[in-house]
Amino acid sequence: MMWFWFGLAVGVLLAVLPAAIVARRWTRRARRLEQRARGAERLAELGTLTGGLAHEIKNPLSTVSVNVQLIQEDLSQLADELPTETGEHLRRIDRRFDSLNRETQRLGDILKDFLQFAGRVKLECSATNVNNLIDELCDFFLPQAQAANVRLRTQFDTASPMVNIDRDLFKQAMLNLMINACQAMTDARHNSQRGGHEDELIVRTQQQRGFGQLPELLVHVIDTGPGMAPKVVATIFHPYMSTKKSGTGLGLPTARRIIEEHGGSLTCHSEPQRGTDFVIALPLEEATEPT
After folding, report:
1. Which residues are registered as beta bridge partners of 150?
2. Interval 119-147: pLDDT, tens
3. CB 131 within 8 A of CB 219
4. Residue 219 and residue 181: Cα distance in Å, rounded?
């Protein structure tokens, strides 16, 4: 009888222990999920607060910028009316206001990019012929490329790929990439980092289907600029990481966020002295009602 009770106790113990271990694991997982949920709530609240703060800063900053311009107009008028020595002194003050106005505008640009990056992305997608959309965008961007002494070329997939995208947001992401490419080539040329060959910006589309994968559309934004080292490429999508003195460091993170909201990806392949290739990958779906 004693062995019976002993065996029963052992059996119960063996049954209870796994259940207790499983229960403990589920309790830990539930706590982690609860902590994550609280963390997400805090992040959402923080995002709302920072967005509101940025708006509160942006409004008086605009007022400062307008008043600086009005003061400059008054100074310019006074400088023309007063004696030469006094007028020259006022012109020196006016140049200082020029610097103040530039910095005010730069702060405004930073706030604008921040609000764009931190704000909620609401997609209004429609079936779109991406070749046609990019062609329109390149026509719009051509004067800016020519002003930067950059040759703009397009190479389109012959299949006229259709993708469900938000046209305006997709163009915004593309413009960020194209502007970034032109600035990289222009800065390198001004710093004597480029050779004598022509700077080119190439926009290419192609469809591909990997082994066991769904079809996707690739959009390449390629430049023949100075390229980047691997350690730089690893940081370019981080907020506020910019290789340009005048950059806010939010253009590329915003572009990646827009593409990811479409269910796609944005990657960068670069090699020093050989140029950079930003690659947008978008899932291809059955599309109707082309736009």
Report:
1. 199
2. 666 788 899 999 999 999 999 999 999 99
3. no
4. 14
**CATH number of the domain enclosing 234:** 3.30.565.10
Q: Rounded to 5, what percent of the chain is helix, strand, coil?
A: 60, 15, 25
Threshold 0.85, pTM exceeds: no
Are both 102 and 47 inside the same structural domain? yes
Q: What is the pLDDT of residue 60?
A: 73
Give the structural domain span for 41.
1-120
| Cα separation, 124 vs 120, whole angstroms | 13
Q: For residues 86 and 58, what is the distance between their CA atoms, to the nearest angstrom?
A: 35
Q: Give the span between the Cα atoms of 155 and 136, in whole angstroms.
A: 14
Q: Are 155 and 202 in contact (CB under 8 A)?
A: yes
Determine contact, residues 221/277, Cβ cutoff 8 Å: yes
Residue 269 corresponds to which amino acid?
A: H
What CA–CA distance (Å, rounded) separates 94 from 102?
A: 12
Last residue of a domain, one of 120, 142, 170: 120
Distance CA 31, CA 49 (A): 27
Q: Are 102 and 59 contacting, i.e. CB atoms less than 8 angstroms apart?
A: no
Could you give the C-alpha distances from 235 to 96, 177, 209, 249, 267, in angstroms and in order? 35, 16, 29, 10, 12
CB 255 within 8 A of CB 271: no
Question: How many CB atoms are closer than 10 A to CB 181?
Answer: 28
Quote the radius of gyration of the chain (alpha carbons, Å): 28
